[in-house]
Amino acid sequence: MSERPPAIRLRGATIGYGDVPIVRDVDLTVGSGEAVAVLGSNGSGKTTLSRGLLGLATVLDGEVQVLGAPVGRLRERGRVGYVPQRHSISGAVPATVREVAGVGRLARLGLFRRLGATDRRAVVDAVAAVGLADRLDDPVAALSGGQQRRVLVARALAAEPELLIMDEPTAGVDAASQEALADTLAAISASGTTLVVVTHESAPLAGVLTRAVVVDHGRIAYDGPLSGAAHHDEHLHHHPPERQPAGYRMDQPTVTSGPRTTADRER
Ligand SMILES: Nc1ncnc2c1ncn2[C@@H]1O[C@H](COP(=O)(O)OP(=O)(O)OP(=O)(O)O)[C@@H](O)[C@H]1O
């Protein structure tokens, strides 16, 4: 048995935006090293739950602890990696794949440190892990949407986080790359990293994710083996959402992007 605290611990947690609750009265413990799928229909609250773990949505009631610390109080933020729900990196930023992945590594080091040889190697490894080794020095703007999505995954991997939270990492990613991602996540999981993956398509990652949490109208409707989740989530095969919020900048450190505003959502 691990002596580490649970990676995630929610007790009576209500999470929302402003003073509007979205996820209500949730109890959930994810042990260190677990690999969990968060499933549920569009709008059920999956993203809000994951953003609550990152301090990007408001904890309105109850307790939310991440890696043993109340949310927002974790000092080394690079211990938690996040792949946000975006289909691609919006253009206009003249950065290369290596540079974007490097930003993820900086989140671990603190922004004013420089990348050393070990860090640079971790960045290259992360990019290779998502199958983009041959695109390292290409501008991300020259990549396809699915490839840009993989760069976001590499950015999170580069920090070698203890807890990796991914929102729809396989959306818009082709089958071969999904397989590569599954292999990468399997390796990370085997090394002890805790995985929480919000997804509409658990099949590509079924070999990695063992436990499923199904969110329905802001509450947990099922928590058990992934194999038993399907009939609790009749919307599992719905298409992932199409939203692409404005104002997103890929040069932001991994977990510091602010919550979406109402204005963003209405665009
Ligand atoms: N920034 C926000 N401000 C206010 N309400 C929000 C915000 N983000 C999401 N919501 C609302 O919270 C509810 C749950 O949204 P959430 O994104 O958590 O759902 P989801 O289960 O991840 O859905 P999807 O599968 O479509 O991504 C929705 O009703 C949505 O309108």
Automatic annotation (TrEMBL):
Entries under PANTHER family matching the protein: IRON TRANSPORT SYSTEM ATP-BINDING PROTEIN HI_0361-RELATED, METAL TRANSPORT SYSTEM ATP-BINDING PROTEIN TM_0124-RELATED
Q: Please list the residue ranges that the record marks as compositionally biased, kind Basic and acidic residues.
A: 230-242
Q: Where is the ABC transporter domain?
A: 8-242
> Which protein are we looking at?
Zinc transport system ATP-binding protein
Which SMART domains does this UniProt record tie to the protein?
Answer: AAA
PROSITE patterns assigned to the protein according to its UniProt record, in alphabetical order: ABC_TRANSPORTER_1 (PS00211), ABC_TRANSPORTER_2 (PS50893)
What does the record give under GO molecular function?
ATP binding; ATP hydrolysis activity
The cross-references to Pfam families, in alphabetical order and at most eight, read: ABC_tran
Cite the SUPFAM superfamilies for this sequence: P-loop containing nucleoside triphosphate hydrolases (SSF52540)
Per the UniProt record, the source organism is: Blastococcus aurantiacus
The record's annotation in InterPro entries points to: AAA+_ATPase, ABC_transporter-like_ATP-bd, ABC_transporter-like_CS, Metal_Ion_Import_ABC, P-loop_NTPase
Give the similarity note.
Belongs to the ABC transporter superfamily.
Keywords annotated in UniProt? ATP-binding, Nucleotide-binding, Transport
- Where in this protein does the record put region Disordered? 225-267
